[in-house]
Every structure is written in structure tokens, then in C-alpha cells.
Design goal:
Layout: E1 4-9, E2 17-27, E3 33-39, H1 44-48, E4 63-65, E5 71-78, E6 84-89, E7 96-106
Antiparallel strand pairs: 1-6, 2-5, 2-7, 3-4, 3-6
């Protein structure tokens, strides 16, 4: 995953889901880079039917690393209207990403 993103649907049985608290860890970093996290404008149905459009990556950084480092950080992010979150590797070398969800925020 280099200068690219992976999307993940946030499982929830509540329709009022608004945001999540996530711990993200990068490891096996091939070079320096940073991670950006943002809600995805596409729906799960669009991804399933291969009609999703590539989202615009955010200009913010949620986690920075150097070559060979293992780094983690807690972040809170909106889930958007579709409960899908994008994880962007903004570095030029591959890295492994581990995501742990610690909590959810809903509008109720």
C-alpha cells in the first residue's frame, strides 16, 4: 500500500453512528511516510459493484513514521454518511497497518 488507500466499513447495528476512536499502528515500514484517515464518500454497494470513485486524499497527517519504525497513535474520525473509513498511506514505500477500534460515537 503506497500512496494509496484501503477502505473499511465500520460495523454497527446503530444507524446513528457518527465517529469512531481508533488506534492505528504501522510496522514493517519500508521508508518514511504518514497516514491519513478520513470518511469515504462511496457506499458499500458502490464498492461491491465496482462503481466506486477514488476519493480525494486528505491533506492532514494522523500518524508519521520513519523507515524501519513501528509507531502507533490514537485518532478519532468521522464515519461519514456511509460508515466507511479510508486509511491512506502517504509514503512511497509499503508498510503494514494494524487498526484497533476502541469505541464509537453515535447521535443518540
Amino acid at each position: 500500500m503506497t500512496q494509496d488507500y484501503r477502505y473499511r466499513e465500520i460495523p454497527a447495528d446503530k444507524s446513528a453512528l457518527q465517529a469512531v476512536a481508533l488506534n492505528r499502528t504501522v510496522t514493517n515500514t519500508g521508508g518514511s511516510g504518514h497516514l491519513s484517515v478520513a470518511p469515504d464518500p462511496n457506499t458499500r454497494d458502490q464498492y461491491d459493484k465496482d462503481t466506486a470513485v477514488r476519493p480525494t486524499p486528505p491533506h492532514s497527517s494522523n500518524l508519521n513514521w520513519t523507515k524501519g519504525a513501528t509507531v502507533s497513535n490514537l485518532a478519532q474520525t468521522s464515519t461519514g454518511e456511509n460508515r466507511i473509513v479510508d486509511f491512506w498511506n502517504r509514503g512511497w514505500e509499503p508498510t503494514d497497518l494494524v487498526v484497533d477500534m476502541f469505541g464509537v460515537y453515535d447521535r443518540r
